[in-house]
Amino acid sequence: MLFNKGLFDNAGNLILIPRNYFWDLELVTRDVDMKEKPKTEGSGLNYYNVKNGRLHLQSYKTSSKYKAIDVKLLNKYTQKVIMDSYKENPRQWLFPILERALTQVIVLLELK
């Protein structure tokens, strides 16, 4: 849905070429939980609010040239699919495989 079509503004202009910017998308339920990415931070800090459909992307290919992409998804179907998935499986990340990988890294670091 997001990856196949990309993101367009209200006039139909493409604002984000579909790449894999959603693999590290953190799910939040409040906009105040979306942290601003420091200029020194390399990647991460991309968010999606499951309650209101707000997508806040700060890490993408040309993010150093442009400001964060902050949009509310107007496609109700996409919002519903993500919300239904979140209700069925509450989690921190859109794709839970990242959460599992990060947990494994933390465990390995703790073992050292």
Provide an overview of this structure:
The protein is of the alpha+beta class. It has one domain. It has three helices and six strands. The strands form two sheets. Strands 3-4-5-6 form a four-stranded mixed beta sheet, with no helix packed on it. Strands 1-2 form a two-stranded antiparallel sheet. A hairpin with a 4-residue loop joins strand 4 and strand 5. It starts with a helix and ends with a helix.
Q: Numbering strands along the chain, what is their spatial order in the largest sheet?
A: 3-4-5-6
Approximate shape:
globular
Q: Specify Rg, calculated over alpha carbons.
A: 15 Å
Individual helix count: 3
Number of domains: 1
Strand content: 15-25%
Low confidence ranges: none
Query: What structural category do the secondary elements indicate?
Result: alpha+beta
Ends distance: 41 Å
The total of beta strands comes to 6
Averaged pLDDT: 76
